[in-house]
């Protein structure tokens, strides 16, 4: 039908090797046309959410505020999942959007833990429906590592402030998250978390 034809054209436009910002904006416009014909077409909501998420990343990389675009992308993924709760792609892309949001917050020295938790929850939920999915497993590993490192950083802040009891919970969670995600437990955030937690427990 016409809505599907418009959607297919939007996907082709996003996959072409051209300016990602222009391609994403054109894809959003095409998806808008498809949704005007069929407002509850999950594939169009997914494609528009992905296009908006790509545009948000492009804008962020070029120093522009992309918060509104990211919220719009998340709303598309939310609506897609409300219509099709089994959509692995919508759940994965919503998780990736939150993981990227966490990275952006961390780069700006803001607290990324809520964004990373939301991402991890989506990847875990997706894996409950599709155990062994390689893409979701990779995304979950990245989210566990990012959240674990953020929690290890929180523990370090508490240690440096002399608040040793308060450092215990973030370090314990960091170790739980990082153990399956880090290959070397003696270095980096995982090694520091192990060492500092051992010192706290010895007090």
Secondary structure elements and pairings:
Blueprint: H1 2-15, H2 20-37, H3 42-61, H4 67-83, H5 88-107, H6 113-129, H7 134-160, H8 164-178, H9 188-202
Helix pairs in contact: 1-2, 1-3, 2-3, 3-4, 3-5, 4-5, 5-6, 5-7, 6-7, 7-8, 7-9, 8-9
Portion in beta strands: under 5%
* Sheet having the most strands: none
This entry's quaternary arrangement is single chain
Beginning-to-end CA distance, first to last residue: 70 Å
SSE series: HHHHHHHHH
Task: Kindly describe this structure.
With 203 residues, the chain is mainly α. The protein is 80% helix and 0% strand. The protein has nine helices and no strands. Helix 2 (20-37) runs antiparallel to helix 3 and helix 8 (164-178) crosses helix 9. It is elongated, with a radius of gyration of 20 Å.
Brief write-up:
The chain is mainly α and 203 residues long. It has helices at residues 2-15, 20-37, 42-61, 67-83, 88-107, 113-129, 134-160, 164-178, 188-202.
Note the main attributes of this structure.
203 residues; single chain; 80% helix; 9 helices; mainly alpha; elongated; 0% strand
């Amino acid at each position: 039908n016409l809505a599907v034809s418009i959607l297919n054209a939007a996907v082709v436009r996003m996959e072409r090797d051209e300016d990602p910002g222009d391609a994403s904006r054109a894809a959003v416009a095409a998806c808008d046309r498809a949704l005007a014909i069929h407002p509850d077409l999950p594939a169009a909501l997914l494609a528009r959410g992905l296009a908006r998420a790509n545009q948000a990343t492009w804008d962020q990389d070029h120093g522009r505020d992309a918060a509104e675009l990211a919220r719009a992308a998340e709303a598309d993924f939310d609506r897609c999942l409300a219509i099709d709760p089994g959509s692995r792609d919508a759940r994965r892309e919503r998780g990736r959007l939150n993981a990227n949001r966490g990275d952006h917050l961390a780069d700006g020295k803001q607290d990324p833990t809520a964004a990373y938790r939301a991402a991890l929850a989506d990847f875990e939920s997706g894996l409950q429906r599709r155990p062994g999915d390689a893409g979701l497993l990779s995304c979950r590993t990245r989210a566990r590592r990012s959240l674990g490192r953020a929690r290890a950083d929180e523990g370090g802040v508490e240690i440096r402030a002399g608040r040793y009891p308060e450092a215990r919970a973030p370090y314990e969670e960091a170790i739980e998250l990082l153990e399956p995600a880090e290959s070397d437990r003696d270095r980096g955030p995982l090694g520091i978390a192990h060492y500092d937690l051992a010192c706290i427990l010895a007090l």
